[in-house]
Specification:
single chain; 359 residues; 30% strand; Immunoglobulin-like
């Protein structure tokens, strides 16, 4: 019985050992900080230790590394580490409760400053609208994205600026022109620059266009013969006679005669009074001689205006859309040989990380 207890205790210690080792890096880090911090020693230790940590702890260590780099005054390296953290983990709050009291105040100030200024772009997707079956290729495509903080933005393709303005924090729809992008299969990189205070973040939007011919071209001789036959107008038979003979003997005859419009006249009586219908008995007096008093006319006008306001149609709601990973279009395309083929084009987005531009 004693032997079994020893084995169970050893097993429990073995299972608890990895957790203890994972938690030990926090104590080692705090030993290099505190009242008299050595930020360089703390960063060097954490940079090596982070490679062996579990994903949850590695996420916490990534932001603390950026904080320690900021304490060392390495601005460019700090921006790189902060951008890497936001692009990988968004605005996730790490587990920093283990930091000592002297360090945590500076860390919270550092994290709050970046969290309220970094214009993080996330949730990028193509948008599909419920507009029925699309014919041909569109002139533009809508891309939806979410931005963490307000910023001025600019969208460009190569040297050409396509759009710019101001975006508040929240969800936005960006319209990308597609003219001239369906000549061949290729990737196009649209650049989204976001400026928040003194910070400029560049987020590439990579649009992939894939084109495939789905039917072979029709030979020119067959196409010309088909077009000639199709171009002959067909006239309907107006009149004619069809006879069927068997062994020289008439057994059936059918004749078609064009129908002639029948003339129809409806006799009307003499002159009518205004408003009188021809099938009704003549009125005894002129109905146009009657009138409506002014009070009744105003009441009727008020009622008509009131009904018009109450029955006013509701405002038009914006079109509904669905976030999709790709879009497909079928359209006719002319090849380099001058042949017309049926082609299919598909659009998709490739993920890309944002970076902070240097001044």
């Amino acid at each position: 019985m004693t032997k079994r207890r020893r084995i169970a205790a050893a097993l429990a210690l073995f299972l608890a050992l990895p957790a203890a080792l994972r938690a030990d890096w926090k104590s080692e880090l705090n030993s290099r900080l505190g009242r008299s911090p050595d930020y360089r020693a703390a960063r060097d230790y954490l940079a090596e230790e982070a490679k062996k940590l579990e994903p949850e702890d590695r996420r916490t260590a990534a932001l603390i590394l950026a904080f320690l780099t900021a304490k060392l005054g390495e601005k460019d390296r700090e921006m790189d580490l902060v951008a890497d953290y936001f692009e990988a983990y968004r605005d996730y709050d790490p587990d920093f409760g283990f930091l000592d009291d002297y360090t945590i105040r500076d860390f919270l100030s550092f994290w709050a400053r970046w969290k309220r200024s970094y214009p993080l772009v996330s949730d990028i997707s193509l948008l599909a609208y419920d507009r029925g079956v699309a014919t041909g290729i569109p002139g533009s495509v809508d891309i939806g994205l979410d931005i963490l903080n307000e910023a001025f933005y600019r969208v460009s393709l190569g040297p050409y600026i396509l759009e710019g303005g101001y975006w508040p924090a929240g969800y936005h729809i960006l319209t990308i022109p597609l003219r001239g992008l369906f000549e061949r299969s290729e990737s196009y990189e649209f650049v989204l620059d976001l400026k928040s205070a003194d910070l400029i973040v560049r987020k590439p939007i990579r649009l992939r266009v894939d084109i495939a011919d789905v039917s072979a071209p029709v030979p020119s001789s067959r196409r010309e013969a088909r077009s000639t036959a199709a171009g002959v107008p067909l006239k309907p038979i107006q009149e004619g006679e069809l006879s069927l003979y068997i062994d020289g003997k008439l057994v059936l005859r059918s004749r078609k005669i064009a129908a002639k419009p029948a003339s129809f006249a409806f006799p009307l009586g003499g002159p009518l009074m205004p408003g009188q219908k021809p099938y009704m008995p003549p009125p005894k007096d002129n109905p146009m001689a009657h009138g409506v008093d002014v009070i009744s006319a105003l009441a009727l006008a008020y009622k008509a205006l009131k009904d018009l306001v109450i029955k006013r149609p509701p405002p038009v709601s914006p079109p509904s859309y669905q976030k999709v990973s790709s879009l497909s279009f079928a359209y006719p395309r002319t090849t380099a040989e001058g042949e017309t083929v049926s082609a299919r084009a598909s659009l998709s987005l490739s993920p890309a990380r944002g970076i902070i531009l240097r001044e």
